[in-house]
Specification:
Layout: H1 3-9, H2 12-22, H3 30-42, E1 50-56, E2 65-71, E3 77-78, H4 85-89
Antiparallel strand pairs: 1-2, 2-3
Helix pairs in contact: 2-3
């Protein structure tokens, strides 16, 4: 399943509920998260040879999750900050 397929199967109401549950201290940012969600749903994906990895830090970590991309042809990972989102949607 690609990230785009996952987004297409989701609803904002479900996403908002889970974000509020997981990050109760950040509920005031929910409208910004909705804008980002809506923008991602409108984008088309591009096909890439990169795997999207989502893992959980230990429960005592400051950031509970991290997201990276790994290219089969390169041993280094990619941060979400650099490639365009259309690329990540195809993963």
């Amino acid at each position: 399943m690609t990230f785009k397929e996952l987004l297409d199967q989701s609803t904002w109401e479900n996403i908002c509920s889970e974000l509020s549950r997981l990050f109760p201290d950040h509920v005031e940012y929910m409208e910004s998260y909705r804008v980002a969600y809506d923008n991602l749903k409108r984008l088309d994906q591009s096909d890439e040879n990169i795997r999207l990895i989502i893992e959980r830090y230990g429960l005592d970590g400051i950031i509970p999750f991290y997201v990276l991309g790994f290219d089969a042809e390169c041993p280094k990972c990619f941060s979400l900050k650099f490639p365009p989102w259309e690329k990540w949607l195809g993963l």
